[in-house]
Predict the 3D structure of the following.
Amino acid sequence: MLVAKGLCKTFHGRQVLRGVDFEAGPGELIVIVGRSGCGKSTLLRCLNGLELFDEGSIRFGNLVLDGGRDDRKIRALRANFGMVFQSFNLFPHLDLLGNLVAAPMIVKGMSRKQAEAIALPLLEKVGLTGHARHYPGQMSGGQQQRAAIARALAMSPTVMLYDEPTSALDPWLVDEVFDVMRKLNAEGMTQIVVTHETRFAREVAREIVFMEDGGVVEKGAPEQIFNRPRDPRTIKYMSRFAA
Amino acid sequence: MTRSGTALLLLACALSARAAPVKTGVLRWGGDSAGGAPFVFQDPKDLAKTVGFEVDLAEALAAELGLKALFVQNQWDSLVPGLKRGDYDVVLNGLEITEDRKAEVEFSEPYYLTYEALTVRKNSDDIAALADLKGRRAGTLKGALAERLLARIAGVAVVGYDTQTMLYDDLALGRIDAVLLDHPAAVYYAIDPRLKNLPGRFGRMAYGAAIRKGDAQLLARVNAALARLMKSGRLREIYERWGIWNPVMAAAFVDDHPERRAEASAYAGYLAARGVRLGWRAKLAKYAGYVPLLAKGAVTTVELSLLAMGIAVVLGLALALMKLYGPMPVSALATVYVEVIRGSPLLIQLFLIFYGLPTLGIKLQPFTAAVLGLALNYGAYEAEVYRAGIQSIPHAQMEAAFALGMTRWQALRHIIIPQALRVVLPPTTNDFIALLKDSSLVSVITMVELTRVYGQLAGSTYDYMGIGILTALMYVLIGLPFVRLSRWAEARLAVERRPRIS
Ligand SMILES: Nc1ncnc2c1ncn2[C@@H]1O[C@H](COP(=O)(O)OP(=O)(O)OP(=O)(O)O)[C@@H](O)[C@H]1O
Ligand SMILES: [Mg+2]
């Protein structure tokens, strides 16, 4: 369904992605791991066109993107993705419901009523029914991140991208976010997740992708990557991780 | 000015001569009612009335021409530019006939001749002539002929004043040692019992009616009318009533009737009005009487400021967006605009809009020009405020909007700008209060707003302190509701700071 081939990206003469190949099928949950600065966020941002890449191609269904600055094509691709950020990035001047209906109304031209008909069940799904009229600044990090997921879902994406969704949360709030992701996984949503939470990765990921220095080193089932890594770089990373 | 500029100017003058006074039946004449007695000033007894020997002259002149006199108020410094713009057809306001001015406008034959008079304190017996001023401080009005005369005497410290009242007050107080000023002004302002006018006559000044170049017909008719007024003794009667008939005039008019014909009744009335000492009750009543006049000026100030600020906000936002997100030429253009407008004085911008644009065929009404001038100027300041405001919103907000499929414009309009507006509300309110006060500058383009009304009232009642305090209070009062409004809006909009729910 989603196939990226040979993605290369250079920031100010520094190569951050060196020919990354990446694939995701429908309903899969894929976890990307790797050291800080290895290019995980950049890969994620390239997938939904937030970042332009220099070489390679991204194919999603019939859509093919091969670098370049074709705004219409990029936005057509992006319409298939929802994205969740480490720092939530909710719109602080809108209440929760406002956050959820904003994009459907602005981008899709829905009426407020239509948009709310989509938003309210989503609030329920992420367990925030009573918070429709609360502002982001009034809520805990876990609640905010769940709201951010609902906001992304309101645009009916096919694939959800998460960039370290729980890194900014207190440990006891992490699970409420993962619970939502588990639920989505059960419903068959395709999800690509950058996270350091091995427990979650082991439990739900169909595949683990290990990156280092702008390239994919090894990928496979969680059990294989975590317990029996083959590549020496993966072994080194995992040993540290376990310790 | 360049040659083509001059050509345009002449063209504009020729065009604006269309509204010839003969056709309208009205003689529009320009003057400044804050310029002081006895020329054109507000009657201390009835501030709604403009009086002065030039008011009488204008009426006599108009009657002689078979027209009705219509007074048009303008700041004294701007009387000639206003004439060129075609706001009125004649200037009658102590405009001295000089070579410089003759290059700009035509002058009638002089209607009044005078000289500079020296005023000192009664007890200073050692000053009798200009040469005695050596080593002393001499005051005069800024830009007066007397200023140039004083500058020619070595060793005199020349002090320039803005108003006659302050000039002679300072002489009486001993802050300066002598005042050199036009004789009529000395007659009217050096009335403190501690002062005396010396008999010496210094220099010579001729006041003429200024008329647009190219208005030859009107010039000829005004000259003929003045000659008739002179011959009939009507002119002399006016000067005598105002107590400013003088030997120089007598010589020039070749007047063979040396006996006085008219009582100096106007002068006596003026002295009487100035001499009145009021108790605090009467004083309060007097100030209460000024409030309606000041309030009228305040309304103009508010209208002007609100409109100008509204436009400035929109313009500033547009400029900020151009600067931040426009392609190179657009953002460069916005930057140049902001720097040029911010870097140059508002006063000069107002002048250019009001007196400069007509040379390009764009003649704006005073109110329009005032709003435009203030808006264009404050737009540049707002642009910088909004740029900072927009930049203070984390880039992550833009990314989140992008990730949801919004275009840059949608993200700006619905996500970034609404948040930035909350940030810029306090500085924008601040700028509005500043604009409220800067709006007083538009009096240079004939607008009569609060500060202008203050100038007129103070100039004709000689009470700069009391009315000054009253006016300052009015500015504060005007600003307060807007400060409150902004606080309220701030509190309402500050959703980010609402308490955490559990
Ligand atoms: N906009 C940018 N301009 C310049 N360099 C960038 C930019 N974004 C990322 N980089 C660099 O690219 C490299 C990869 O960044 P990226 O954010 O993809 O890493 P990451 O794997 O997500 O790391 P982390 O775990 O810290 O989030 C880093 O060295 C980073 O400094
Ligand atoms: Mg990252």
Summary: Residues 1-20 of chain B have pLDDT under 50 and may be disordered. The first strand of chain B starts at residue 26 and ends at 31.
